[in-house]
Amino acid sequence: MHKKRCDARESILDVPRTQGFVAWRLIATLATFLLHSVLHAQVAVDINRPRSPFDCLLPIGVQWYGSEQRCLAYMCAGQNVYNEYVFDGQNRRRKNPCFGQSPTELRDPGGDR
Q: Considering the domain boundaries, does residue 33 fall inside one?
């Protein structure tokens, strides 16, 4: 029985497949599928999470944290709490949702349950 050899002009698919090759290819395919499923599931969970303190004023912030105060307590940690107005990425002046929060005494997010 003559086995065909693979050279630079031929495709690797022209070489006869052994059981080991098929098994490793199956394992690699399953691993890729599982990894894709895990990564896709993580992304799908975090899509609707508030991304900035401005989102706390929207229904998404209340749905995620349970109340506007809890959302602001979490999202304003380490943010600018001194200026009443701030400029956003498009250079628009907006009211700072973190204004008036204490910079040293952050509210306990679970305190108003």
A: yes
Q: Is residue 1 part of a domain?
A: no
Q: Based on the domain organization, do 65 and 112 belong to the same domain?
A: yes
Joined together, the tokens standing for residue 36 give 């894709």
Contact indicator for 48, 64 with CB cutoff of 8 Å: yes
The domain of 103 spans 49-113
- CB count within 10 Å of CB 92 equals 8
Look up the pTM and report it: 0.50
**pLDDT tens, position by position, 98-109:** 998 877 665 555
Distance CA 70, CA 78 (A): 15
pLDDT tens digits for range 44-94: 555 778 888 999 989 999 999 999 988 998 888 888 899 999 998 899 999
Cα–Cα distance, 60 to 52 (Å, whole number): 11
Task: Identify whether residues 59 and 20 lie together within a single domain.
Answer: no
Whether residue 41 lies inside any domain: the answer is yes
CA dist., res. 10 & res. 5, Å (int): 9
